[in-house]
Design brief:
Rossmann fold; six-stranded parallel β-sheet; 462 residues; 3 domains; 19 helices; four-stranded antiparallel β-sheet; 53% helix; Beta Polymerase, domain 2; alpha/beta
Length: 462
């Protein structure tokens, strides 16, 4: 048989191997995880309002939301993440493509199709960073969406909708969000809808300082609306609640300054408010043609609910409804004052830099792990060499020489022959006994050939 020569060694595949994480004892290829992610989303606008009503979980109880998402997840057969806010819906799938994800979502609604935006791989990460940082919100830099995102991630993990491994993808989104917010100073902003509401209320009250106000709902947004009205000097404020006593207990200080009653009690009154604010959470409009607002007086009606709690068919001809479509238009106008375009342009560059650092960190982690392994392996060999009979005069040199060999191995940028490795060892200027040096060359070559036979870094290091 012809001499085929000595086998070539190529360690670069271990240096360039896709990075891995270890989560709950399981090793995860980070790049494979990222590339397997798909997302469909829809940002609310006047053209897709009807679609979003069927896709959002806003207004559902916790139990209803869980049942809805579990139904989609079971249909999809893969981990699923859902986020609904006042101006968007987001669905993220793992190990599936956008077609599969969209098909499963639509199958759980009464929709045949929907104008989703689609993202895959690292673009999912980029878009979620924009969403969570408030760069894609009604009012740029809003804080509320990040809180909603973190809460949704925790909720999905708690209910087993996303595994810890897939959930780690969102940890990188949250990390990037912190950098963006710190750079732009977004941590000093308030919730977008509250800002819009405050400005609108100030305008209405300035035109009618003695407004008679009704606030529907006394949850978080309802309380804030009442607080704004009180700060503006309003005194005639009525809050409509399903359970007035329970609502009053949640915020007794504010409740003491308003009238709280049930809807039935309000209907019995001869009450003619000039301002109605709705913060009701429900899956369908509470007020429509079959159940109109129980007042026919001229009034400004502000609906801050999503999905909408007041349909245009449920108001009088002399009443002005300011619903979600109105707030979208207002937000777009305010975008000019925020210098929106330049902020977005700057943020795109920043997200790209964070993405590059993120990917480099993953790669560097793999390289560092391999380098560390090589140095430890050669150091272990050096401890064996000092036990050889010819090592008495060379013992002080062997540990340093092992590091020198490891450095040479880690710096190879391509395949090399075993002869090259042997010659590198044998040609050292260090005062090492020649017989021992041959043993060192043999041990190193045998060890590296054995490592070279492994397929992956995990095989090498275990």
């Amino acid at each position: 048989m012809a001499n085929l020569g000595h086998p070539n060694i190529d360690l670069t595949r271990f240096l360039n191997e896709s990075p891995t994480h270890e989560i709950d004892g399981q090793r995860v290829d980070a790049m494979s995880l990222i590339n397997s992610v798909s997302m469909i989303s829809m940002k609310l606008d006047s053209n897709n309002v009807e679609h979003v009503k069927y896709l959002t979980t806003e207004g559902l109880s916790k139990k209803q939301r869980l049942e809805f998402i579990k139904k989609i997840r079971d249909n999809l057969g893969a981990d699923l993440f859902e986020l609904s806010t006042c101006n968007r819906v987001v669905y993220v799938g793992f190990g599936v493509d956008c077609d599969e994800l969209e098909s499963s979502v639509l199958a759980s609604t009464s929709l045949d199709n929907a104008p989703f935006d689609r993202f895959t791989g690292i673009d999912v990460w980029r878009q979620l960073v924009k969403v969570c940082s408030g760069l894609d919100s009604f009012m740029i830099g809003e804080l509320q969406v990040m809180s909603q995102f973190r809460g949704s991630v925790a909720w999905h993990r708690k209910h087993g909708l996303t595994s810890d491994i897939n959930g780690s993808f969102f940890d990188h989104v949250i990390s990037a969000n912190r950098v963006i917010r710190r750079e732009f100073g977004f941590n000093k902003t308030t919730e977008s809808m509250l800002n819009l509401a405050t400005t609108a209320l100030e305008e209405v009250v300035s035109k009618n300082p003695h407004s008679i106000s009704v606030v529907l709902g006394f949850g978080e947004m309802g309380c804030k609306a009442v607080e704004v009205l009180l700060d503006l000097g309003q005194t005639d404020i009525t809050v409509i609640s399903r359970s007035p006593d329970e609502s009053a207990k949640r915020n007794p200080e504010t409740a003491a300054k308003v009238n709280i009653m049930t809807l039935d009690q309000w209907k019995e009154l001869d009450h003619q408010p000039s301002l109605i604010i709705s913060t009701i959470r429900n899956t369908v409009a509470s007020y429509n043609s079959s159940n109109p607002i129980p007042t026919t007086a001229p009034a400004k009606i502000m609906d801050f609910s999503w999905p909408p709690s007041i349909d245009s068919t449920g108001i009088g001809a002399n009443q002005d409804l300011m619903g979600m479509v109105h707030w979208i238009k207002i937000a777009h106008k305010l975008g000019v004052e925020w210098d929106y375009s330049s902020t977005i342009e700057k943020s795109e560059l920043m997200i790209t830099e964070i993405q590059q650092r993120f990917m480099s960190a993953l790669t560097d982690r793999t390289q560092a792990k391999f380098r560390s392994f090589m140095y430890q392996t050669l150091e272990s060999l050096s401890k064996q060499w000092v036990e050889y009979e010819h090592a008495i005069e060379s013992a002080a040199q062997l540990e340093a020489f092992s590091r020198e060999i490891a450095t040479w191995l880690c710096n190879q940028d391509g395949p090399f022959a075993t002869d090259e490795l042997g010659n590198m060892v044998l040609s050292t200027d260090r005062p090492i006994n020649p017989t021992l040096l041959k043993r060192v060359a043999s041990d190193v070559t045998e060890t590296i050939i054995r490592i070279n036979e492994k397929s992956t870094l995990s095989e090498v290091t275990h």
